[in-house]
Structures are given as C-alpha cells and as structure tokens.
Amino acid sequence: MLAVALTSSLDLRNVEREAALTRLFSSHASQLQRLAALLGAGHEAEDVVAEAFCDLHRKWGRLRDPEAAPAYLRSTVCNLVRMRVRHLQVVRRNSTDAPDDAASAETQVVLREDQLEVVRALQGLPDRQREALVLRYWLDLKEAEVAAAMGISAGSVKAHTSRGMAALTRALEGRR
Amino acid sequence: MTVDTEARLRETLRSLADDVAPSPGAYRRAQATWRRRERRRRILLVVLATLAIGGADALGIWALNSAPAHTPIVFDGPAPVAPAGR
Fold first, then answer.
1. CB proximity B28 to A under 8 Å
2. Residue A50's closest chain B neighbor by CA?
3. pTM of the model
4. Of A70, A75, B59, B71, whose CA is between 20 and 30 Å from A160?
5. ipTM of this complex > 0.90?
C-alpha cells in the first residue's frame, strides 16, 4: 500500500517536472542558445543549452522555487561556456594546428564593418569582462542578476563591466 | 564616447544574436538525453542498493555459519527457572 502510494507520488512529481521543463524549454531555449553563442560557444551552443536543461532536470527537486529556474539555467550556460572556452584555449596552446572551432561569429553573420570592429574588440576582452558586457547589454539584466548568473558579487560585476567598456572604447578608438 | 560604444555594442550583439536560430528538433534531443540519464541513474541506484543488501545478507549468513553449533548466539547464561507454585 505504502509502495503504491510512494510510486504514484514519484510518478506525479516526474510528470510535473517534465511539464515544467517543457514550458521552460519553449520559453527560454532560444534566448539561452543565443546567449551561449554570444559568449563563445560557437557551433556547440545548442549542446550547451541541452546540457543545462539536463542539469536542471537532475537537480529539479533541489530548486528552492520554480521561478528561479530561468536564472539557474542562465548561470549554468555561463559556466558551461566558460569551461568550453578554457578547454579550447588549452587545446590551442598545446596544438599548433588545432581547428579554430570558435569560428568567429563574423564569418557566419553578415555584419557591417563597424560591427565587425566591435566583435573583434569583444573577442580581445578577458572572458569575465565579455560575459558581464553580454549579460548587461544584450540581456539587459540588472547588476544583481548578472552577479547571480556569473556567480560573483555585484561589486565585481560593476568592476568587470566598467573595465570591459573602457577597454572596448579604447580598442574601438584605436581602430579609427 | 561610452554612450556611443554602448549603442554600438547593443546593436552588434543584437545582430549576432538574431542570426542564431534553434533547430526544430532541439527539444526532442534534449528530452531524450535527460530521460536517458535519468534511466541510467535509476539503474545504477538499483544495482548499488542490491549490492548493499546482498552484501549485508551474505555477511550475516557467514557470521551465523561460522559460530560454533553448540554456543547459543543470543543467550549464553543458564536458562531461567520458573519459581515453584506458579
């Protein structure tokens, strides 16, 4: 009797979890894929998003509130892309003829010359600064939300954003 | 100058993002992956539980089997004698 009750309760929880993840996927997956691509995931942006959803599926029971799921997914995508970028950097350092997987965005998208300059300047920034700028100026997140996504303090976000913006301005002025 | 940089940055990021389109089968693939992992996790859990219970049973049987047959396992004193008259 107890086993039957426990099984049906687990089944109900699974159904709820699947339904919640389906809703989240349809509302957030495309934005997360774009975020991953902007942060440097390249062709693996879709895999990064799938991995983030698998992680959320595994930890669904530990989520304090279903409303926190989008922020959790954003943070997971940021972490996964950072790990991937570091991995690629190590691969490139150890191999002279490693394929340039981060086939820079400008090779795939038709951008104007001034936009290409911004892309090149962005690629020259340290990972954290680029991440802070993308989250702040593309997703329009508040400082606290950027901090949660990056797993750092709001003060550090402020520092990364202002340093990144200053470096970007300098780089763009230097190219004129 | 920062305002100009900000505007350029926003515009460039928007252009780059607009070009990224999710593939139609993305949800099905992701769902298949998380279901497969969940199944694997459950199988692993069942295997570990079976091993733990089986190990404990084997240990208990071995302990019982290795005790001398004439030595009582639970009570080793003389059996209590019921008082007369009861």
1. no
2. B30
3. 0.77
4. A70
5. no
